[in-house]
Design brief:
The protein is mainly alpha-helical. It is 79% helix and 0% strand.
């Protein structure tokens, strides 16, 4: 279904995504109001999922000391969430297609809130790891359900662009908001509140979803592909786990290469199985479209920039510049604001009228320029003169890029595939972020060690050298991604009128 046909369908059918009141269709004004309030509910759910993936970073030292974790175990606070979330997204998207998006969304919201309470009350490291894993598992059901509800609710191209602009801005702000909130809660309350904060928010989302959301596509039918779920989830978990272990074990040895090779083999078998399964977990028709496949690819490449920058700049602010946890979060505020502007004021206004590549290519090049600026930061650099311009350029470029990529990947997807298509976007983002962050972290560590070998005692300068070298390679990656976007993201053919 093209954007034009989607718009035509939207004009000829009742407003989607709304519950009739007393069996009668709501008035156009009331329907429009309810639909946008529904968008707020979906955006809030996405915010808390993404916020929870970063809020724990600043709280981790306090949690480690409180629960008596050793250094080798502390990574599982982050890794257990990433493994469950990234490995189960495809399965969560297909479950949403089979049981209904709203039902899956409500289960995901309730489960995520309960898992957050468990993690916050954890008396031991094992319970904390389990709570974080459950957060990731329910997030893998919540996230694709939310995006597919958004896709099937806003079908008009102009409304879709505006809705995805708001949704993308919320998503982009989630990571930075997590750093700010994590710093405030840890510094002034307790690290456990970084877990508890999701509970009241999920209660609000749950009530709002019951009142404002409905599943216009209904139940898709069919059966769950258990073999495909095992192969796909197993392959993704192996790859994400391998990349997470590379930070501590390195890329040599036998563990990390074995995990990556095993994951690649499982994914290859997954593709072969999907081609012959009568009820595939990921119908190959979803990825055969060149434009959609290009959007999935870019969804995996783009987060490398933002996640790598968050990782390095957080350490730069706290370790090199000596910022407090709260001040570090506040230092990221200009980035958050620029992501919002890039999503809602640039991309959302252009997407309905121009080919996606005309937004994504400049956005990626703008992000590359921001990375290039940050790659020249030194240990004694001024925040206003050297760091701030890089954050703003990166935020504008990546905000415009990610919103457009999400809208492009999900545009025209049949209702029966809306959940799995949305899950593919999130899967690409999580996998790309995990792989990219691990590669960049390893590169930075090597550059830091090499610098120290030639400049003994210059620890701060060596650390910054490792960070800036990695950010320079990110700039190169974004330029290459822009070339791919120019080749793959073309505007879909619109049907001739009359």
């Amino acid at each position: 279904m093209t954007l034009a046909s989607a718009a035509e369908a939207d004009r000829s059918t009742p407003v989607r995504g709304l519950r009739p009141v007393s069996g009668k269709a709501p008035s156009p004004a009331k329907a429009d109001s309810r639909r946008w309030w529904g968008l707020a509910v979906l955006g809030l759910s996405q915010l808390i999922v993404l916020l929870d993936s970063t809020v724990v970073n600043i709280a981790l030292p306090s949690a480690q000391a409180d629960l008596g974790m050793d250094d080798g175990a502390r990574q599982w606070v982050v890794t257990s969430y990433a493994l469950a979330f990234g490995g189960l997204l495809l399965l969560g998207g297909r479950i949403a297609d089979l049981v209904g998006r709203k039902r899956a969304f409500l289960i995901g919201v309730a489960g995520f809130g309960a898992a957050s309470a468990l993690a916050g009350a954890a008396p031991s490291p094992g319970v904390l790891f389990a709570g974080r894993a459950l957060q990731g598992a329910f997030g893998a059901l919540l996230a694709p359900s939310a995006m597919s509800l958004l896709t099937t609710t806003f079908t008009d191209p102009r409304e879709r662009g505006k809705a995805f602009g708001i949704f993308g801005a919320i998503a982009g702000a989630g990571a930075a908001a997590g750093l700010i909130l994590g710093g405030v809660l840890t510094q002034y309350l307790d690290w456990r509140w970084c877990m508890y904060v999701a509970v009241p928010v999920e209660v609000v989302v749950l009530v709002g979803a019951v009142l404002l959301l409905d599943d216009p596509a209904g139940r898709a039918g069919g059966r769950l592909d258990l073999m495909g779920a095992a192969l796909g989830s197993g392959g993704l978990v192996a790859i994400v786990y391998g990349c997470a272990e590379a930070e501590s074990r390195g890329w040599g040895g036998t563990v990390v290469p074995s995990l990556l090779a095993g994951g690649a083999l499982l994914l290859a078998l997954f593709v072969l199985w999907q081609a012959r399964s009568p009820h595939p977990l990921l119908p190959l028709r979803v990825v055969r479209d060149r434009r959609r496949a290009g959007a999935f690819l870019l969804a995996g490449l783009s987060p490398v920039a933002t996640f790598g920058m968050f990782l390095f700049m957080t350490y730069y602010f706290q370790v090199v510049q000596g910022y407090s946890a709260v001040r570090t979060g506040l230092a990221f505020l200009p980035l958050t604001a620029s992501v919002v502007v890039g999503s809602t004021q640039i991309a959302a206004r252009l997407v309905p009228f121009v080919a996606p590549r005309l937004v994504v290519v400049p956005g990626l090049l703008l992000g590359a320029s921001g990375m290039l600026v940050l790659s020249h930061v030194e240990a004694g650099s001024s925040y206003a003169a050297h760091v701030l311009p890089g954050l703003v350029l990166t935020g504008l470029g990546m905000g415009a890029t990610m919103m457009t990529v999400m809208a492009t990947a999900t545009a025209g997807a049949p209702p029966r595939d809306a959940g799995v298509t949305s899950a593919m976007v999130s899967t690409a983002q999580q996998t790309g972020a995990a792989i990219g962050t691990s590669v960049l972290n390893t590169l930075a560590a090597g550059e830091t060690a090499a610098y120290l070998a030639g400049h003994p005692g210059a620890r701060a300068e060596a650390t910054v050298h490792g960070f800036t070298t990695s950010l320079g390679w990110v700039a190169v990656l974004l330029v290459l991604a822009a070339a791919l976007a120019a080749a793959l993201l073309t505007r879909p053919r619109e049907r001739a009128a009359g």
